[in-house]
């Protein structure tokens, strides 16, 4: 019996959504290889959690996904206005929830704009960066379906 992913159905009169894929494969211990359009990255767990600490954890990548999305949107704002991106930085901190289920409880992102950005543009940069795709996704969470497809013997 093979499980297939649920069919994505578009509302009448709309086009089908683009489906994006990636593959995660076990490497060793708690380490996993992620293949995204031919780009490879690794995830693991820290030594104190039983891993070998050869890569960031999935939760760290989750926080990094938000931080890099914010940075990308901020960078595009700067580029659109002919301003340099050199010096743009996003520092991110997160806390884990103390109560089950295991999850990120809070994220705090601090954007350091390039020195060339005038104070008059700070609010606009923050507004644009705050509407990045990952942040919008967290504000309006997607439907998540987790299925199982057993391997054929």
UniProtKB/TrEMBL annotation:
Residues 1-20 are annotated as: Disordered. SUPFAM superfamilies: OsmC-like. Signal peptide: none annotated. It holds the Pfam family OsmC. PANTHER family: OSMC-LIKE PROTEIN, PROTEIN INVOLVED IN RIMO-MEDIATED BETA-METHYLTHIOLATION OF RIBOSOMAL PROTEIN S12 YCAO. This is OsmC family protein. It comes from Streptomyces cylindrosporus.
